[in-house]
Amino acid sequence: MNEQAVTTSSAGPEQVGLSFLALAHSVRERVDRHMTTATGLSLSRAKVLQVLASRGPLHQAELAKALEQAPRSVTQIVEGLERLDLVTRTGDSHDRRRKTVSVTDKGRGVLTSAEQAGAEMLQQLFGSLDRRQLAALDQLVARVGTAV
């Protein structure tokens, strides 16, 4: 797309917003697919491991809150990660229903590989933009982010 096409566009905020949503969805799908194919770790599973790696062991309810997801959704992800030996869950001595989730060394290794795969795909998708275009896109995304 040339710069003149961008500056003379008559698309309104709604049309641009819908285009942005479609693009964001497509980018997420491509990154997710590449990470899953390369490492077996989806974006949603990687996010759980990232939170645990950065914050340390968390109770499942705390993890759900940190991820801004429903506890049941997080429980399903954690169960899958546990089956792969990427996390461990330990019971609370005072409350058997309460579980603490910790990332394993294997989980840290897989997370590193998944993050690298995600970065490779983002480089492929956004690498065609020059520094000026990247800076402009970064500013626009930040401005919309502030509005959110």
From TrEMBL:
Superkingdom of this protein's organism: Bacteria
Pfam families given in the database record: MarR_2
All copies of domain HTH marR-type, residue ranges: 13-146
InterPro entries: HTH_MarR-typ, MarR/SlyA-like, WH-like_DNA-bd_sf, WH_DNA-bd_sf
Name assigned to this protein: HTH marR-type domain-containing protein
